[in-house]
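Annex B. Sample input.
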Amino acid sequence: MSQQAQSCRYTYQTSEGSHQGHYLYWPSARPDAPLLVCVHGLTRNARDFDILAQSLTDHYRVICPDIAGRGDSERLRTPALYGYPLYVGQMQQCLQHLMLKYQVTEFDWVGTSMGGLIGMMLAAQPVCPLRKLVINDVGFFIPKASLERLSGYVGKGTDFADLAAVEVYLREVAATFGPLTDAQWQHLARYSVELSNGRYRLRYDPAIAQAFVGVTPEDVDLSAIWQLVQIETLLIRGGDSDLLLRETAQTMAAQAHVTLVEFPGIGHAPALMARDQIRAIRHFLGCR
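Annex B, continued. Sample output.
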């Protein structure tokens, strides 16, 4: 782990009892800097934001949580609980913990895919502690074709002999992340797995795949939630994304509080490691 990032834990409550949540804290040279929360996608974890977080510590103290069952956050005993009601509840409790610990009342938010939906759902609440919202390659409409693609790899192929095999796997299933450098792929490979009994296993609970078992994928329409989001929003879209369709992105961007940025040649979802992607986020967040 980078010496700049601190590993932190907090307790949150679910219907099956208490669980330990985990986040990485990236301090700023400014002790009173605002807090930015960065939340990962479905099968990913907090380490996806290492490059982005380091680039923003001149302006922010950056918090990168692991959602339940991912990274260093505890796994659930009841797989059926994996879903947005629990994730939103976990993040609400995480934000309350952060408010007390760091004496703040508001946050900015960067969310990739699942993390973007969690941010959208938080921003739709009557009392919202989010000030600015960055949504990375997800919107109010999710086509069933993209869900079919996700169901094809979630919870599968999670055991590897070495890190080289992990990298080969990621370069295939995550090819749509964009043209990453060898060092960036190696970073993702290193932090996507943990060593267990001499084998490398992906750092998420395979049970999250149960949400796809026996379910016929259908289009998901979250327009009723999106209509309640009024905070300033940057919408990032991979130009070839199959999850955030161009029509959906343009509909969202027609609202005065939404700015749309597209990156050509990338699918779902931009990895937020490239300079132009980081520059767009810095500009939106007012980092000078």
